[in-house]
Specification:
The protein is an alpha/beta fold. The chain has 8 helices and 7 strands. Bound molecules: NADP nicotinamide-adenine-dinucleotide phosphate.
Length: 244
């Protein structure tokens, strides 16, 4: 089986590539930085193709599909993982920043899914959406990011109702990755409950193999999602403890 992973140059995407490779799957890896992709490839033991492009540009996913067709490479599992982070009040977030979040976190996954959907369906494959706990809970100061992940959640869930295809939604909590390199994150004063992407990737793949469709990582965060339904004000209060 061949797995296409977006955002595989670092972080969770790289860790997922290594784990899928350990399971014997061939890989197609995408992100913008070629060096990072080469580094990820050097960590993988199965056949690995790399493509450096920007997923937020609509034409790129269909270009990738065509170049894989020429090489006779067919995709069984798509992991929509590439994403960017940003923290800040909506009033203080520029239109350009909001658009970049939507174009990458939401539209990037839409373009890739649309380009590969028919092929994956015909091969009885799977599409895995790496969402976020921020796609289930409105986290204070994460409005623009939450909007991109809530949209992704609606898209993935609607697709799973419309199509006979295995759709898996993954909702990670905070992970120790380059996601937080963005300047905006300096207002985060505490880093509690962060897990390493390698641990998250291992747990995700174990659950995917067990045919789980809604994966929360770490699983105790399910309690937070539940608490947010019953007492959202209290959960918001808890989150506010993390800021300066
Ligand atoms: N870290 C967390 O705490 C956390 C928590 C919940 C959910 N998530 C989600 O997990 C996913 C992976 O994030 P991460 O934590 O691993 O972050 P990361 O370490 O910053 O990795 C993100 C990857 O996505 C790629 N990428 C970003 N924009 C791209 C674009 N326009 N086109 C192609 N590739 C792009 C990056 O490479 P280039 O910059 O070279 O393109 C990089 O390889 C994201 O969807 C994120 O929203 C993260």
């Amino acid at each position: 089986m061949t797995v296409l992973i977006t955002g595989a140059g670092k972080g969770l995407g790289r860790a997922l590539a290594v784990e899928f490779s350990k399971k014997g799957h061939d890989l197609v890896l995408v992100s913008r930085n070629k060096r990072d992709l080469e580094e990820t490839r050097s960590l993988c033991s199965t056949k690995t193709e790399i493509f450096n492009y920007d997923i937020s540009k609509p034409e790129n996913a269909s270009r990738l599909f065509k170049s894989l067709q020429k090489k006779d490479i067919k995709i069984d599992i798509l992991v929509n993982n590439a994403g960017i982070g940003y923290v800040g009040l909506i009033t203080e977030t520029s239109i350009i920043q909001i658009k970049e979040l939507i174009d990458t976190n939401y539209m990037g996954s839409v373009y890739t899914t649309k380009a590969f959907l028919d092929e994956i369906k015909s091969r009885s494959g799977s599409i895995i959406f790496i969402n976020s706990i921020a796609g289930r809970i409105l986290i204070p100061n994460f409005g623009a990011y939450c909007a991109s992940k809530f949209a992704l959640d609606a898209f993935a869930k609607s697709l799973s109702k419309e199509e006979n295809i295995n759709i898996v939604n993954v909702y990670p909590g905070p992970m120790n990755t380059n996601f937080y390199d963005n300047e905006s994150f300096k207002i985060l004063k505490k880093r509690y409950f962060f897990i390493d992407p390698e641990i998250a990737a291992n747990k995700i793949i174990t659950k995917v193999l067990k045919k789980k469709k809604n994966i929360v990582i770490p699983s105790y965060l399910r309690l937070l999602i539940l608490a947010n339904r019953i007492m959202p004000g209290f959960v918001r209060f808890l989150f506010n403890r993390f800021y300066e």
